[in-house]
């Protein structure tokens, strides 16, 4: 089973399908997720804006209550002079004020100095005896030197229950008294529920600065009321009052709640709006069902798209690989031409041209010894070319597998440039500048294939760029630096390439900073039949072939020399004759002879 999985995973079509599938599906998932988040944020923002508006309405409603009570007390204070010290007239005025505002007020009464009252409520009109619990209200009325209306803290009133009292000092019949009004908090709470619109996830409430509940949020699942205080998670509502933020998020009994608050400037009450997002969560669940369906549709589209893209790239690549395998088995009569007009078609046409050049060279070799020598050189060169063709196709596979489709054209152009460089015309000698350009194309392909940086450091004397060297002499050495010096392309590293004219010769050095090798292995590199059979066969053939080509073309004094040290790298030196210097010496000799 594992071998079958490995076989499929190393298959370019499967990897390409997998990459396309993941890319399309993840893109669709990301877009769906962003859309879901955007809609969620918009709904949440809308709900919070609504909560803010309701909070402002609640403040306005409190102001209306305050003005109502203030006007009632003001009217009683103003009409006190008309009572002419007649307590019966005062009683009638209180009853009238109560009747007009009975829906919003629990009682309207006057507290006398002995703490008995004149009440407007039918109950307090009868039960008007002195009570000590009225003393704080009476004293509060006279605590304000300016005679303004004073608001009490919420407290438990014997007649009105849990209430808030508004009071003001007045004088009737020469006796200092306090006119007081008890709010009907139950009616006020019902009005605020209507202001809130009956929303399940938005509750409105009012507390004083000590955290005592004046108006309890109705029907809330977030907290309980104990001794007129909010309780949640073993905490007290005073924490909410003391919070420095006007809008903040807290957790109440495991539910995240957005809390908005403001302080009423008239009463100093803290007005709250609690939003737990119950309606939002219900809407989001419906949206989740929709987006799950959307993801399933995206899954199907991902499969179809990935299959189409994989087939579009896989077909021409597999076609080229089959044809190259036939060439690798010795069939030089293969025709790779394709009707495609894209980069793959151009690659196939260039490869056909290369095979035609190879067949032509073979025919020329049969005509004589020189042709035999050219055949030997061509065979040596052909031993270098096939594996970089395979590597390039592997690079295309990797680029496609990782979804970097925009790089496919560049790789194919680099490969075409390398192939054209080898087949444009059969000439062993090119100038150094052309050879350097070919090395750069080769390095670009390898960097893409191994996803690793191989820095090319050029230390080339400009006068050497036009000097002749052997075609394809530098690329195999650079290849050895990557495969053997830098762990088969798994490690990045620099490759230094230098060229100078010295003592009538052109000296070219290719140096890496890789793992290096022992002197014994260095000696074996240039031997035709080294003793170390287990040493890398491709490396021996590559350097030996270059060494032999240089000696066949220029003679015994020229060729390769190799220096290496374990852990410090390897330096391969190529020595070519400097034809320009030799021509100058010959002309100088002829001039002296004349």
TrEMBL record:
Subcellular location: Cell membrane
Membrane topology: Multi-pass membrane protein
Keyword Cell membrane carried by entry: yes
Gene3D superfamilies: 6.10.340.10, Histidine kinase-like ATPase, C-terminal domain
Primary localisation category: membrane
Domain HAMP: 311-363
Domain of life: Bacteria
Alphabetical list of InterPro entries matching this protein: Bact_2-comp_sensor_kinase (IPR050640), HAMP_dom (IPR003660), HATPase_C_sf (IPR036890), HATPase_dom (IPR003594), Sig_transdc_His_kin_internal (IPR010559)
Keywords from the UniProt entry: ATP-binding, Cell membrane, Kinase, Membrane, Nucleotide-binding, Phosphoprotein, Transferase, Transmembrane, Transmembrane helix, Two-component regulatory system
Residues annotated as transmembrane: 290-313
UniProt-listed PANTHER family: SENSOR HISTIDINE KINASE YPDA (PTHR34220), SENSOR PROTEIN KINASE HPTS (PTHR34220:SF11)
This protein's name: HAMP domain-containing protein
Organism: Paenibacillus plantarum
């Amino acid at each position: 089973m594992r071998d079958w999985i490995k076989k499929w995973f190393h298959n370019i079509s499967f990897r390409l399908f997998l990459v396309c599938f993941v890319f399309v599906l993840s893109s669709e998932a990301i877009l769906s997720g962003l859309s879901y988040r955007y809609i969620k944020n918009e709904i949440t923002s809308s709900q919070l804006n609504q909560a803010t508006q309701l909070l402002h309405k609640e403040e306005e409603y409190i102001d209306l209550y305050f003005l109502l009570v203030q006007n009632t007390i003001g009217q009683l204070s103003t009409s006190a002079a008309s009572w002419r010290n007649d307590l019966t007239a005062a009683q009638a005025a209180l009853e009238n004020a109560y009747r007009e505002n009975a829906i919003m007020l629990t009682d309207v009464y006057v507290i006398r100095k002995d703490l008995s009252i004149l009440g407007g409520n039918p109950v307090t009109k009868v039960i008007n005896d002195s009570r000590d619990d009225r003393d704080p209200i009476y004293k509060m009325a006279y605590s304000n030197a300016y005679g303004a209306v004073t608001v009490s803290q919420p407290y438990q009133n014997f007649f009105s229950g849990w209430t808030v009292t508004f009071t003001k000092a007045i004088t009737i019949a020469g006796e200092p008294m306090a006119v007081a009004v008890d709010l009907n908090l139950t009616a006020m709470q019902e009005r605020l529920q209507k202001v809130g619109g009956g929303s399940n996830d938005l509750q409105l409430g009012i507390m004083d600065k000590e955290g005592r509940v004046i108006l309890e949020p109705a029907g809330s699942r977030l907290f309980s009321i104990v001794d007129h205080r909010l309780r949640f998670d073993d905490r007290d509502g005073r924490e909410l009052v003391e919070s420095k933020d006007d809008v903040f998020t807290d957790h109440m009994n495991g539910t995240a709640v957005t809390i908005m608050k403001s302080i009423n400037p008239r009463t100093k009450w803290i007005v709250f709006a609690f939003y737990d997002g119950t309606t939002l969560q219900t809407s989001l669940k419906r949206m989740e069902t929709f987006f799950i369906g959307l993801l399933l549709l995206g899954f199907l589209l991902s499969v179809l798209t990935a299959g189409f893209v994989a087939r579009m790239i896989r077909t021409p690549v597999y076609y080229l690989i089959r044809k190259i395998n036939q060439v690798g088995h010795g069939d030089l009569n293969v025709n790779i031409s394709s009707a495609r007009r894209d980069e793959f078609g151009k690659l196939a046409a260039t490869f056909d041209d290369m095979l035609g050049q190879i067949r032509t060279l073979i025919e020329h070799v049969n005509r004589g010894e020189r042709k035999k020598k050219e055949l030997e050189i061509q065979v040596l060169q052909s031993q270098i070319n096939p594996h970089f063709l395979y590597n390039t196709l592997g690079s295309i596979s990797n680029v496609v597998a990782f979804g970097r489709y925009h790089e496919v054209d560049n790789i194919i152009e680099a490969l075409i440039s390398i192939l054209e460089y080898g087949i444009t015309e059969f000439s062993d000698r090119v100038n150094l500048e052309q050879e350097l350009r070919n090395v750069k194309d080769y390095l670009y392909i390898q960097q893409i294939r191994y996803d690793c940086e191989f820095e090319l450091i050029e230390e080339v004397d400009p006068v050497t760029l036009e000097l002749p060297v052997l075609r394809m002499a530098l690329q195999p050495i650079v290849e050895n630096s990557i495969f053997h010096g830098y762990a088969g392309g798994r490690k990045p590293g620099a490759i230094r390439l230098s060229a100078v004219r010295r003592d009538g010769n052109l000296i070219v050095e290719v140096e890496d900073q890789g793992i290096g090798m022992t002197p014994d292995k260095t000696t074996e590199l240039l031997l035709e039949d080294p003793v170390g059979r287990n040493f890398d066969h491709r490396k021996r053939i590559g350097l030996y072939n270059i060494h032999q080509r240089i000696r066949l073309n220029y003679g015994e004094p020229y060729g390769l020399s190799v220096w290496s040290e374990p852990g410090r790298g390897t330096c391969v030196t190529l020595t070519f004759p400097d034809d320009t210097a030799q021509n100058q010496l010959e002309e100088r000799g002829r001039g002296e002879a004349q």
